[in-house]
Amino acid sequence: MRLQIRLPAVKPDEYVAPQVCPYADCGGRYFAVHQQHCAKALSDQTYTEVNVKRYRCLTCQRRFRVYPTGVSAQQRSQRLQGIGIMLYVLGLSYGGVADALAALGLSGSKSSIYRDVQAAGAWVRQLRRQQPKRRVQVLSADATYVRCRRQVVTVAVALDALAGDVIEVELLESESAEALQPWLSELCQRFEVAVLLSDDQDSYKSVAEALALQHGICRRHVNQNVAKLAEQVLRQACRRGSRATRSSCWPTWRRRN
Known about the structure:
Blueprint: E1 31-41, E2 49-57, E3 63-66, H1 78-89, H2 94-103, H3 110-130, E4 138-148, E5 151-160, E6 165-172, H4 177-191, E7 195-198, H5 202-210, E8 214-217, H6 219-256
Parallel strand pairs: 4-7, 7-8
Antiparallel strand pairs: 1-2, 2-3, 4-5, 5-6
Helix pairs in contact: 1-2, 1-3, 2-3, 4-5
């Protein structure tokens, strides 16, 4: 299964106009531009500096900054933070992510990577609570294996097959039917799933039958398996043909010598 990764974009010329005063005790909605140009150093793979605008709230008279898209008050861009989170999710430790960024000439300490990952987790939980109930007609499920601290970890991924969105990533004990069924059962109830799409592994077929779901096999996996099987058959045929050719030529070679 291939995941589509979308990193935040940095657009130094794009700003979102303020709608409400950022100070919690104010709530003002009218502002005046206090400073049009204010340079800010930025750690990013493309930009080293961006322009920040400063506004003054007409209600409380306090000033605040408005950053361009993909930039916050932190030194590192949101795109660079996203790269660090992506590397951690792919299996690197916090220290490993910091070393990888340093090798690419990018900044990011072990502690800053940790804060980014924790903040991203909190944001995802909040986003889930705010989202309306969603129905996923076709659920695509697959698992991959990564090595973490010398142990193989099963990472299961569920997608909305029609929309192409990742809706769940879970760590499981294995890819057996016993390990998959509680996870897939909860997803099917939450999203009212009608069809389960997977590879041709028997565990998914068993879970689909137990949950009374229609089951479909991904065409990409079928093509890969058919290609592998054809390659194996061809190699076996070539080996047998080679042995048959050598055995038929052996008596002639003996007679000539």
